[in-house]
Write a structure and sequence with these properties.
Keywords: Coiled coil. With about 210 residues, this protein is an alpha+beta fold. Helix content is about 35%, strand content about 25%. The N and C termini lie far apart (about 60 Å).
Length: about 210
């Protein structure tokens, strides 16, 4: 089968992997907002036909198992994976052409592209901040686990301030505390978690 790259999109409520040999073919995985290695400049729109079984799983042209057919479109703007569309059925060439043109025209809008990039940058910055916060907590757990092992106490004048310190002091295994900290999204130092805490009117408040 050889090497390929993969695009991940949602089709009928399931994440699907679309394999492509058009780009660098180094087993890269791409999702919305990713820059595609080996892509060309400008607005590029590509399509593929998919066959799905009755569970929504991708099948490869086995008519007996193919319950649903879909035509998918992938849009790259200056090499960035910016959009995709899923259409029911296996569209003919005459039906595919206007979709290609419409998507190309849509992403020629520089304001739309710039807005997409800003949103992706914001989301990536949040993700990096979240990861840095978790790494700081893991480092604190390791440091305090070593202190406990050396016979030191963790509580100061104000007692044990952090939940992970309370768990360590209670005798929980450091690896279990680290696993808990990596999965905990309730105390991330005030960081935004997704869009749930974003105020859509923030920029208009006095």
């Amino acid at each position: 089968m050889g090497m390929f790259d993969s695009f991940y999109i949602e089709v009928d409520g399931h994440e699907q992997e679309l394999q492509s040999k058009r780009f660098d073919c180094i087993l890269n995985h791409y999702r919305l907002g990713d820059w595609v290695s080996g892509s060309l400049p400008g607005i590029r729109v590509y399509f593929d036909h998919l066959c799905l079984d009755d569970t929504g799983k991708l099948v490869y042209r086995i008519e007996a198992e193919c319950v649903r057919k879909r035509t998918v479109f992938i849009v790259l703007a200056q090499g960035v994976f910016v959009d995709f569309q899923v259409h029911k059925g296996e569209l003919s060439a005459s039906a595919i052409s206007p979709v290609l043109s419409a998507l190309r025209e849509r992403w020629l809008d520089s304001a739309r592209f710039q807005g997409f990039l800003v949103e992706i940058l914001r989301a990536q910055q949040q993700k990096i901040a979240l990861l840095e916060n978790r790494l700081d907590r893991v480092q604190a757990i390791i440091t305090n686990a070593r202190r406990l092992k050396a016979g030191e106490k963790l509580d100061g004048i104000l007692g044990l301030l952090h939940e992970h310190d309370k768990k360590l002091a209670a005798g929980e295994e450091p690896l279990d505390v680290i696993a808990w900290a990596l999965g905990d999204e309730t105390s991330m130092g005030g960081l935004w978690l997704g869009d749930a805490n974003l105020d859509p009117l923030e920029e208009y408040r006095l």
